[in-house]
């Protein structure tokens, strides 16, 4: 009976505990306990709820089922079943889809009886796990990508199906270097026993572009115009800016996310663009629309997630705010009835109060009449353009020779107005801007070392974001208005809703509303904000409300700054966790069933 010769748990490049562990297992025995370790998460530890978080990231799948699927795909390619009249046909095998145009000639020298030879775990990411698949007698390798169970099955399915369609669109429309998908399924009920994407493995990769990214590199005299720093940083920023230029130049007909037509119910689809029927615009897959929706019925959710007409560029903001209000009210009713204890009535009522204020202007945050507004090239900024949610150097692979770059990871991609798009996460910075330390910071040289380092950090984050703005100006002058301070201030509330995870995060939304309120008369007079000309400020705050907000956000930020690893939601890379544990800086609290960090010891 054939068997997998070796299944490697994590890559040999992994440096965390357990990397490189290998085992052999019978190909047709999915019950073999010896293979369980290859499905378990090991690249980090959570200080709280570690077991629960790791269970969410368990990627147990059927190796035999995967083997059967690959055999079916090979048989399709070998038998010439591919539709000659429609070589781009998406074939259906139960709950699985096979992209005919991508399997052609992929298994050129293979035989249908070839079996999987080796499975290597390459990467355990934030949202998914990646395995490399090697097959007997087949030169080319495959990648199996499995999403973690972090959200609802509905969101997992939509996100995966939209990602595959987005990759297919970018490959076919622009001939970009993106791995070709052979097969996929957004369901658990399939041969593999898990939602998956099966795609080609790019084997001539030298390194990830992240290897070149040094966001905290020094600039001469702490100035923006240091040519050496600019050159080094642009080695990373420029390739991403070039890619972004290609992607955002294309104009769609509606707003939402890209799907294959057959994957999207007719009542949840709109035309992507004319004269084609392969892709449609369906419900958005931005995480904010699905986060914390455990108690929202699917039929209610679908009222707010799009797709949206091309004539309604700001309705996605209005719908997101109203969806959040609906969700908060449902949670509040469950707290009142005693069915839910994880939330507090006070916290939910505060959130509802803030979101009600935001709802008054959510659909009219900007005046859409180009003849009345001061925003330059408004019509260009409102057109439906593709926004890549995970545009990051980690997702750019540098290939050997002159082959250029390979782009991967298109989760959470959405078609939206460029006006309300955000900076790539690796460049995003919402703190105070500093462009020249010596000119802007009084007595900088006389400050103590800690204060100087804090200001240097702010300067470097400002510099990096500024270089992205320069790249937009160089490539897309019609879109550069998006960096206007006015636009940034107004859309700040919306961007904070996208990052809204827990009740106290509504303080950041309130902060944005207060900023808009203080500038309301000026913006209203100049026709910047929606259909409010001549109207009184609908989101006015009293002095007592502002004082209360100031105290609360200061307390919240102080609370967050005292929590180690808050930026990663308490996740610690495994090699760092082991080191800190050995040094006695991370200790087990058995009563609370969690890990605690000895901050005093770390500071020493």
Automatic annotation (TrEMBL):
Gene3D superfamilies: Phosphorylase Kinase, domain 1 (3.30.200.20). The keyword Mitochondrion applies. Keywords: Mitochondrion, Transit peptide. InterPro entries: Kinase-like_dom_sf (IPR011009), Mito_inheritance_9 (IPR051035). Residues 1-29 are annotated as: Disordered. It is found in: Mitochondrion. One of its GO terms (cellular component) is mitochondrion. The keyword Transmembrane does not apply. It comes from the Eukaryota. Belongs to the AIM9 family. This is Altered inheritance of mitochondria protein 9, mitochondrial. The lineage of its organism: Eukaryota, Fungi, Dikarya, Ascomycota, Saccharomycotina.
């Amino acid at each position: 009976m054939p068997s997998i010769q070796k299944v490697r748990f994590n890559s040999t490049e992994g440096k965390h505990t357990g990397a490189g562990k290998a085992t052999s297992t019978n190909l047709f025995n999915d019950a073999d306990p010896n293979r369980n370790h290859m499905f378990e998460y090991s690249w980090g530890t959570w200080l709280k709820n570690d077991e629960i978080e790791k269970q969410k990231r368990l990627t147990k799948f059927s190796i035999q089922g995967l083997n059967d699927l690959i055999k079916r795909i090979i048989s399709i390619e070998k038998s010439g079943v591919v539709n000659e009249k429609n070589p781009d046909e998406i074939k259906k095998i139960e709950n699985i889809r096979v992209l005919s145009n991508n399997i052609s000639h992929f298994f050129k020298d293979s035989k249908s009886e070839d079996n999987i030879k080796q499975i290597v775990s390459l990467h355990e990411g934030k949202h998914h796990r990646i395995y490399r698949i090697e097959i007997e007698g087949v030169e080319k390798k495959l990648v199996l990508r499995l999403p973690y169970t972090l959200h609802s099955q509905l969101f997992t399915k939509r996100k995966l199906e939209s990602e595959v369609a987005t990759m297919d669109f970018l490959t076919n429309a622009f001939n970009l270097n993106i791995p070709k998908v052979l097969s996929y399924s957004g369901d658990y009920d399939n041969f593999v026993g898990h939602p998956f994407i099966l795609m080609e493995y790019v084997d001539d990769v030298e390194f990830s572009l992240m290897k070149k990214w040094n966001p905290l590199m020094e600039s001469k005299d702490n100035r923006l115009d240091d040519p050496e720093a600019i050159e080094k940083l642009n080695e990373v920023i420029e390739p991403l800016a070039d890619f972004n230029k290609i992607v955002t130049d294309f104009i769609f007909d509606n707003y939402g996310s890209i799907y294959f037509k057959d994957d999207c119910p007719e009542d949840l689809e709109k035309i992507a663009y004319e004269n084609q029927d392969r892709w449609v615009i369906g419900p958005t897959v931005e995480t904010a629309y699905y986060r914390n929706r455990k108690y929202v019925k699917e039929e209610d959710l679908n009222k707010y997630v799009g797709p949206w007409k091309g004539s309604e560029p700001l309705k996605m903001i209005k719908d997101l705010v109203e969806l959040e209000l609906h969700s908060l009210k449902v949670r509040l009713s469950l707290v009142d009835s005693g069915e839910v204890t994880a939330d507090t009535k006070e916290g939910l009522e505060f959130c509802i109060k803030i979101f009600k204020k935001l709802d008054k202007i959510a659909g009219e945050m900007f005046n859409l009449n180009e003849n009345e507004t001061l925003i330059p090239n408004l019509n260009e900024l409102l057109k439906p353009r593709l926004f890549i949610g995970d545009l990051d150097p980690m997702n750019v692979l540098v290939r050997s020779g002159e082959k250029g770059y390979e782009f991967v990871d298109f989760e959470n991609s959405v078609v939206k107005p460029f006006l309300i798009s955000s900076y790539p996460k690796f460049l995003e910075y919402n703190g105070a801007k500093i462009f020249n330390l010596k000119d802007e910071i009084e007595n900088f040289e006389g400050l103590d070392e800690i204060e100087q380092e804090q200001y240097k950090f702010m300067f470097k984050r400002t510099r990096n974001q500024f270089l992205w703005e320069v790249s937009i100006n160089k490539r897309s002058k019609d879109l550069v208005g998006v960096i206007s301070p006015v636009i940034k201030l107004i859309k700040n509330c919306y961007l904070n809703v996208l990052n809204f995870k827990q009740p106290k995060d509504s303080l950041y939304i309130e902060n944005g509303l207060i900023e808009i309120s203080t500038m309301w008369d000026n913006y209203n007079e100049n026709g910047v904000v929606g259909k409010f000309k001549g109207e009184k400020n609908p989101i006015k705050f009293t002095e007592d409300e502002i004082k209360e907000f100031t105290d609360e956000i200061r307390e919240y930020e102080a609370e967050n700054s005292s929590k180690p690893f808050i930026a990663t939601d308490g996740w610690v890379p495994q090699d760092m966790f082991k080191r800190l544990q050995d040094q006695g800086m991370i200790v087990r609290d058995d009563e609370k069933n969690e890990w605690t960090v000895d901050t005093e010891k770390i500071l020493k």
